[in-house]
Structures
1.
Amino acid sequence: MKLLFKKLFHSFLTVIGVITVVFIFFNVIPADPAKIMLGQRDDLRQLENINKKYAFDKPLSYQYFYYLNDLSCISIHDNSNSDNYTYSGNYNYFTIISFNNKILVLKFPYLRTSFVKSNKLVTDIILETFPNTCILAFASILFALFSGLFLGILSGYYKYSFIDRFILFFSSLGVALPSFFSAIIFSWFFGFVLFEYTNFNLTGGLYYIDEFGNENHFMLKNLILPAFTLGVRPLSVITQLTRSSYIDISQQDYIRTAYAKGLDKFTIIKKHIMKNALNPIVTSVSGWFASMLAGAVFVEYIFAWNGIGKEIVEALNNMDLPVVMGCVLLIALVFIIINLLVDVVYLLLDPRAK
């Protein structure tokens, strides 16, 4: 329990650090948020109102405090009209206590609104796109995990043979291929050259959208190419880790004892070798799953998959800073949560880690 609280405290400090770095980075970009929000119809009066509403006219330190105030589940509002900056009308909140024209409120984290999508809430944008990224990441990691375990066991079982060298060659090639390059190659080869046989589309999301904007067809086949592309690199790493763990553990004394007792090979592999070989694989899978949310940026954009990665690219092109900041913070939070879960799973798999 003490270790868990220590890790939670370190995770909290990490979140604060990420928020600070992201805020500073996007506030030194030479862009005027007020002009981006107004587009071509801006005038001095409108620019002044926008700057006052969102506190863009205040020093950077004040803006940072306001941003933390928005992100925090417990925040402070000005209960009077003397402060031009207040988001109390933009979200629902529960008042905890009032003091000196201030109120302490409980609320859902407020990620502000998009600069270019008619003031659409960043939270709504994330809720629309993040589930698609999760589907893609889960499909990719499941493909990589099961295929990597099978190929790794096969390679370790037939170590130093032609099968072993063949698997190692392609796993090394898979690690060397960057996602954006393999996405273009796989899209062109399977979606264009072999289209008659695969019937895979070059681009497309999980649902087919007609010319009227209606989602009317579930297109599971559109998931195959981006999931395969995103899963190639973790597949290669899992294959090599499984092979190394298999070879190392199969040479241990207790494995020789299991063979001496007359246990069959399948039972030894299942109950003795793989159970002890899973620790480094679990760590690898967790890291790759978290990194897939970031690596999916290129894959989603190339395959036009409507996920958070594609949304980040479009937001960067339009200088939609609240959307980029919200998406980056979400990905960082997912990294931290997955690392905490991995620590727990690792302790369950190997009590010696305590």
2.
Amino acid sequence: LSPPRESRGLRARAVLLDPGETMPWHSTGAREELLVALAGRLRLEWHVRVRGTRKRSLSAGQCAFLQARVEHRVVNPSTHRAHYGYVTGSAR
């Protein structure tokens, strides 16, 4: 059984962040990203050329979309473990 053509090339992963843990700054290159908060509280930070660094808090069930080539990181600002998932795909 092969995946539908539209889903080929998608990549997904789940991540656990301990209290106070921060993922390093990174970009998914030419890939767009959908980030989904699964448990706990997260802070998504990303760079915008004209406006500097932007921040958005996410709670379980909320999601954020990142365009290709956007440098970003995910922070767990809470005292509890946080869990999130992401899916990346090629921007067309």
3.
Amino acid sequence: VAQLADRLEVLTDGLVNRAQAEAAQSFVDARDSYIRSRVVVIMFAGASLVLAAVLGLALALSIIRPLSALGARVRRIAEGDFTGRLYIENRDELGALAANVDRMSEQLRVLYEQLADQERLRLARDLHDLLGHSLSLIAIKSQLARRLLASGDTTRAASEVADIEGVARESLQDVRHAADGYR
């Protein structure tokens, strides 16, 4: 019995030692698995951040380029350059905005041409109104002064020449006033 008990004790101690070794090994394995899983999670998180940054940059560039082109086109329109068209590759909201900017540019070009035509007509009317009457009066008074000089009435001719000078000065002042208004 003692021999069996000793053998049983040796076997029991062996089982306990093996159980302790297996427990220690499973603890080491669990710790290694935990470290590996942390590394994998950190790598996935890092890769996700890099991917998000790359996608964000690509998205930003796909928006910034069309917006820069739109801004440049609007600046040219503001400077009075209505030539050219705006082309944006993607036909989403930015493409619709580009089409609207082009349509606005065309409408502004037509309006500016109409305004220029109206301004030319107004200038012609103003010049005719300012100078037409005065130049006619100068021509008639000049003819009268010439006839008076031919007939020998120099006093009256001098009076007519003084009137011509006054009308010419008034006309010159009116033209300068009008020109200042156009500037």
4.
Amino acid sequence: MLNVDVVRQIRVTVPDLHERIKKETGKSNKSVQVLATEAGISTAYWYQMMKGERSWISEEVLEGIEKALGVSFGVEFDSSKEGD
């Protein structure tokens, strides 16, 4: 029997996320290099986020950025699953 993976994707639009990341980065006492490392992304990726050069990011990247900055941007995904 062959197993098949089913992937569920949910898209959430976050207005001005790049500005919010830029603001929180400025308030942080950590360097961009440290923040990016803590978020699990490259420094270049972090700068792209602050400049608004990315049109989408994964949920995992957002969670890493929030954790590194110690903030929540209030993005919530419907995590309910059939059968829960």
